[in-house]
Amino acid sequence: MRDRVERLLERLVRASAVERIAVSVAALFASILVGAVLVFVSGGFASCRTGLELAGWTFCYNPVQVYYELFLGAMGHPLQGGWSPMNYSLATTLQQTTLLIFTGLSVAVAFRAGLFNIGTQGQLVVGGLATAVSVVYAAAIVPGGLVGTIVLIPIGVLVGAIFGGLFGAIPGALKAYADANEVITTIMLNFVAVGVTSTLLSWQFQDPNSSNPQTQPVPEYAEIPTIPYVGFGGRMDFSLLAFAFAVALMVGVAWLLARTSFGYELRTSGVQPEAAAYGGVDDKRMVVSSMTLSGALGGIGGAFWVLMVHGRWLENVPELGFDGIAVSILAGNNPLGVGAAAFLFGILQSGSRSIGTATDVPPELVGVLSGLIILFVAMPEFFRMIGSRYVGVERERPARADGGEAGSDDGGDADA
Amino acid sequence: MPMRDRLPIPESGYMQAVVGGGLVATVLFLALASPSTHTATLRLAVPIALAAIGGIFAEKSGVINIGIEGLLIVSAFTGVVVTFRLGSGESTLLISHHWWGLLAGVLVSTLFALVFAVVCIEFKADQIIAGLAVWLIALGLAPFVSRIVFESPNTATVGTFDNVTVPVLSELPLVGYLLFDTPPQVWIMLISAVLGWYLLSRTSFGRWVVASGENPKALDTAGVDVRKVRYAAVLLSGVFAGLGGAGFALGQLGTFAGGGETDIGGRGFIAIATYLFANYHPIGALAGSFLFAGLDAIQVRLQAAGYAVPTELIRTIPYVTVIIVLVFVGKTRLPEAAGENYESGED
Questions:
Q1: Which range scores top for mean pLDDT: A28-37, B6-15, B110-119, B338-347?
Q2: In terms of Cα–Cα distance, which of B22, B5, B16, B53 is closest to B268?
Q3: Is the pLDDT of residue A222 over 70?
Q4: A 161-180 residues with CB < 8 A to B
Q5: Which of A162, A175, B98, B224 would suit a FRET pair with B320, their CA atoms being 20 to 30 Å apart?
Q6: Which residues span the membrane (chain A) (predicted)?
Q7: Rounded Cα–Cα distance for residues B302 and A286 (Å)
Q8: Does B194 reside within a domain?
Q9: Domains in chain B, number
Q10: B36: which residues sit within 8 A by CB, 6+ positions away?
Q11: pLDDT in tens, B117-153
Q12: What is the C-alpha separation between A304 and A105, in angstroms, rounded?
């Protein structure tokens, strides 16, 4: 397993940043193309009044219209009249982008350490509940108003990070000390997270004034504030401050990985565990600490989902953690790339709502698209083959010896 | 469960402990749990055991098929949709539409396995990431199609296979209700386990599969095409997983909920833990699936009994057990070349 991951990462590091961006963009277009075919063909099985008549068959869905709604709907239709950048759809896009930056970073950090963290979802669920509960309880002893905002939000985010981190540390420790495959344990822990949090909710934290499975709301002053006069206020559930925090965290993680000795050790453990161990890195502790960091980022995602979107924890947590996998893979597990990939998936999420309202195409299309994107990003060889067939580029494989650069600082910076 | 006796006991003390513990647990389970829990266990084992048997072939050949969960989802969903479209309760060519549904489920699962195989073998994709992609695509595709056909992420109800009841034999104690008055997918599972074991350990194809995962170079040198062996093994994993998914949906559920984690709910991943636990032995995997299915059946029972323990917590029992099992089998040795792409020198 380790061997394989190592070789994969080596390959990823060796591939130039340009090539990787090219592969990601090509994967995106290939997915959109396959998605279009899927939409068109499935339209033949749907029932509708008007559609495209072809060979005695009625095709109900128009892929062009679907993508129009998906991409422009996510921006609030900028090509139509009366458009303002502070519209609800764009707020949703940026809200999803913010949350996906956290989950994408969570997956990326683990991946760079040579670990597959499929458990970001569970870490987000656990961290989110911890945030909601801690803020609700702390609000009772903290004064309200601006002081409350300044005290409660950091408490909530910190508690979310701690609980997410602890929940992430479990598969890390199981991997380090019992060699339990982290792909399976993290997936199982996602189910455990759902079971444990809903048990805790019904046992202790259920909002007595609601029949929905949810916690009590945090006080309004403990929600992430919006910047007055700049926009995205009211009921848009998006705050530019949260977005700025996500971007800052992203830069921070990039700096941590590229410029600190911890980051260097983490990356070396991912690319060359033997070399890292030889260089004095305690590989077991590294596995636990990188999974803890990854879990903490997932937990922060949960904290912001609670404090920015709903103001409370709900039992039905959206699959932000799974989308984080797609975000990280599309970004080549590069923290700065996560921002761009998260924006794309933010568009897909927000656009799926506009598909749902403006067309008859099921919004689950977006789930299929993200799966396709992962599939295509996983096969750069496919695009290289196509590329060499049509452009006539010689397929060149770097000699094994060139890999020596992979672990060095230069190799790491090249992906930034 | 009678298969368990024939399981060859490996030399290592660990495996002896596992098999011994399993026998004790089996006896206790048969003595203490009710007949309805026994039959539920057998039926709930179907998707886990068949996915595990399929996964064994893929992984033994060197292709880790973590997308097996996705194969269960697409086959279960397809089975129900096709049965519904043809008209449940009716038959075509004297064969009940449930069987046509099963066949369609197996075909679609095999098709997905083919795509996965092409992506991994032809385009040298990372197997884990490609497998995750297959899972996520299935997770999106099932509710997507379901909304088109049923206008809901959940399908309509199509009913289940009729029990196959053998006269006289079904009157026997224990084995009577377990084996001779049971829906057909249970027999598919039992036969597949024996067939899988036979294929893997008694035929030259089985030896090629093992060699392809352990030492592809040697196999190549011996004149066997590693790619073809891997294609066959991955396709086979699609067939077995398809039987498991469609058999589970058409024999046990009678419907398919495509929302959230879907009705499959991680059984494909449990299957992976199962075959690691069984050290890639198909009949061992069958026995292992009884452990998880038994826990599942017990938790359903506990929920129905209405104990003070919350249902949500009880539901996590099988998942927690998987983690505990993985902690103890962490040292299972993967095939030497598992996860690696093989390039023949002839390129």
A1: B110-119
A2: B53
A3: yes
A4: 174, 178-180
A5: A162
A6: 21-46, 93-112, 124-144, 150-171, 183-203, 238-258, 293-313, 325-345, 365-383
A7: 41
A8: yes
A9: 1
A10: none
A11: 999 988 888 888 899 899 999 999 999 988 888 888 8
A12: 14
Q: For residues B113 and B70, give the distance between their C-alpha atoms in angstroms, rounded to a whole number.
A: 10
Per the model's pLDDT, the better-predicted residue between A101 and B86 turns out to be A101
Q: How confident is the model at residue A404 (pLDDT cuts 50, 70, 90)?
A: very low
| Facing B313 at nearest CB: one of A174, A181, A195 | A195
- Are A362 and B134 inside 8 Å of each other by CB? no
Poorest-confidence range of A8-22, A195-209, A359-373, B167-181? A8-22
How far, in whole angstroms, is CA B288 from its chain's centroid? 11
pLDDT, tens digit (0-9, with 9 covering 90-100), for A142-153: 887 888 888 899
What band does B24 get if pLDDT is binned at 50, 70 and 90? confident
Give the angle A296-A300-A302 at the CA atoms, nearest 5°.
115
| CA-based nearest residue to B271, from B254, B299, B290, B253 | B290
Band (A136; pLDDT cuts 50, 70, 90): very high
Residues of B whose CB is below 8 A from A183: 66, 128
Query: Could you identify the residue written with the tokens 């549904």?
Result: B101
Q: What is the DSSP string of B267-332?
A: HHHHHHHHHHHTTT-HHHHHHHHHHHHHHHHHHHHHHHHT-SS-HHHHHTHHHHHHHHHHHHHTTP
Q: Cβ distance A395 to B343 under 8 Å?
A: no
In a domain, B83, yes or no: yes
Q: Does the residue B247 lie in any domain?
A: yes
Q: What is the pLDDT of residues A273-326, one digit of tens each?
A: 777 777 777 888 899 999 999 999 999 999 999 999 998 999 888 889 989 998
Query: Touching check for A369 and chain B: CB below 8 Å?
Result: yes
Maximum C-alpha span of chain B: 66
The percent of residues above 90 in pLDDT, for chain B, comes to: 27
In which residue are the tokens 């048997």 written? Answer: B53
Q: What is the mean pLDDT of chain A?
A: 83
Position A71 scores a pLDDT of: 87
Angle, to 10 degrees, between the axis of helix A145-178 and the axis of helix B317-329?
50
Rounded CA-CA distance B313/B307 in Å is: 12
For residues A122 and A196, the answer to whether their CB atoms sit within 8 Å is no
* Domain coverage including residue B141: 2-329
B330 pLDDT band, cuts 50/70/90, is low
pLDDT exceeds cutoff 80 at B303: no
Q: Max alpha carbon distance in chain A (Å)?
A: 71
Confidence of residue B347 (pLDDT cuts 50, 70, 90): very low
For B125, name the nearest residue in chain A, comparing CA atoms only: A379
* Shortest CA distance from B134: residue in chain A: A371
Number of continuous H segments (helices) and E segments (strands) in chain A: 16, 2
What is d(CA B183, CA B61) in angstroms, rounded to the nearest whole number?
A: 32
Is B54 inside a domain boundary?
yes
| Strand, coil or helix: B154 | strand
Closest by CA position to B22, among listed B6, B4, B48, B40: B4
Q: CATH no. for residue B223? A: 1.10.3470
Q: What is the DSSP string of A127-158?
A: HHHHHHHHHHHHTTTS--HHHHHHHHHHHHHH
Encoding tokens for residue B243?
A: 């039987």
Total beta-carbon pairs less than 8 A apart between chain A and chain B: 156
Q: Is B218 a residue whose pLDDT tops 60?
A: yes
Nearest to A329, CA basis, from A361, A387, A389, A371: A371
User: What pLDDT, on a 0 to 100 scale, did the predictor assign at position B233?
Assistant: 94
**C-alpha to C-alpha distance for A69 and A62, rounded to whole angstroms:** 11
Tell me how crowded residue A10 is: count the other CB atoms within 10 A of its CB: 18
Inter-chain contact A370–B136, Cβ cutoff 8 Å?
Answer: yes
User: For residue A380, what are the CA distances in angstroms to A94, A246, B121, B129, B154?
Assistant: 29, 29, 13, 12, 36
